[in-house]
Amino acid sequence: MRIPRIDPKDATGLFDKVVGLGKEITGEVFDRQRLIEAGESQQAKGTEKLKAIREQAKAEGHKAKAKSLDAKERSAQRAKV
User: Fold this and answer.
1) What CA–CA distance (Å, rounded) separates 38 from 16?
2) Potential cystine with 39: which of 24, 59, 62, 79 (Cβ 3.0-4.6 Å)?
């Protein structure tokens, strides 16, 4: 099994979620609504970043599959000749 390489810029989504949760918890403990809202907002930002990374990975998978099928098609065409 191959371990996927994680690009540091991709880790920022997870970082935003963790820091946002920390802000939200701190806001709850100290009863600071602005901190709670900032934490929720940062978590939402992290979630969107992670969704974008997932979608990009799917797109790259589709591109690889298309490239593989294209190579098969070319190989089959050469075999006809």
Assistant:
1) 11
2) 24
Q: Largest Cα–Cα distance of the chain, in whole Å? A: 77
Q: What are phi and psi of 74, to 5 degrees?
A: -60, -40
- Measured CA to CA, the distance from residue 73 to residue 13 in angstroms comes to 39
Q: What is the pLDDT of residues 17-39, one digit of tens each?
A: 999 999 999 999 999 999 999 99
Residue 46 CB neighbour total at 10 angstroms: 20
Q: Strand, helix or coil at 33?
A: helix
Name residue 34's amino acid. Answer: R
